[in-house]
Amino acid sequence: MKRMEIIILGSGTSMGVPMAGCDCRVCQSSDPKDKRLRTSVFIRTGNARILIDTSADYRQQMLRENIRDLDAVLYTHHHVDHILGMDDLRSFNLLNRHSIPLYGMAETMENIRRVFTYAFNNEKQASSIPMLEINLINDQPFQVADVPVIPIPLFHGKMPVLGFRIGNFAYCTDVSFIPETSYDLLKNVDVLILDALRYRPHPTHFSIDEAVAEAQKIAAGKTYFTHISHQVLHAEAEAALPENIHLAYDGLRFNLSRD
Q1: Which of 57, 63, 113, 140 shows the greatest Cβ crowding within 10 Å of its Cβ?
Q2: Environment class of residue 243 by beta-carbon count within 10 Å: exposed (0-12), middle (13-18) or buried (19+)?
Q3: For residue 105, what are the CA distances in angstroms to 44, 108, 167, 221?
Q4: How many CB atoms are closer than 10 A to CB 156?
Q5: Other CB atoms within 10 Å distance of the CB of residue 20
Q6: pTM, entire model
Q7: Which domain holds residue 165?
Q8: Domain count along the chain
Q9: What's the confidence (pLDDT) of residue 99?
Q10: DSSP code of residue 187
Q11: How would you list the strands of the sheet with 222-226, edge to edge?
Q12: Per-residue pLDDT tens digits for 51-67
């Protein structure tokens, strides 16, 4: 039985919390659990160090958690808050002298190539560029080093996105609809990370009430909500959630076993 360490690098929505220019009670809160960088998670298991999404706060997250290298990056989708930190992968390229494999759907990788054209156009550059290996994935399981990864098809509004399951851990951010066939992929999960943007409904994210209903249907051992907006005060929301459902927060860690 292998061990798996999971670190919530960021639990915030696309503008982060506090949001620039905002004087609301959450943005002005002194509770460190109300300080939310953009959504991302790090997994260390076996010989693999896996990052899900290079958030816009990637560099700050790597420094905070003293993460010194990566073996792979898995991408849920191509929205900017989930990809804009990609250029900073260069530091691990330079220090550790290896390229970094990226895994994502065709649409995700097409947009990453578009945004970071200089990294993929094979033109000689005057300064360093990220050294990356693109791996296209769909809904079929794949492996990173010795680690089996199961993609979980989801919808972010009308947009197909991916969640990921590694062992008994599942990560489903930026989701407003779970296809019926994906529930089977979430059976017997010990820890589920699930999108829950705010109290009011949203066209592309679960609200807290919707996320609670989904969490109870999936029935993971524990569920933690992520991608949380500045409309949600941590202590207040946490106190109102059902048993075994919680708000994630930046720096939250789990240690799980993995078959």
Answers
A1: 57
A2: exposed
A3: 23, 5, 21, 29
A4: 20
A5: 7
A6: 0.96
A7: 2-258
A8: 1
A9: 94
A10: T
A11: 142-144, 147-156, 159-166, 169-172, 191-195, 222-226, 245-247
A12: 999 999 999 999 999 99
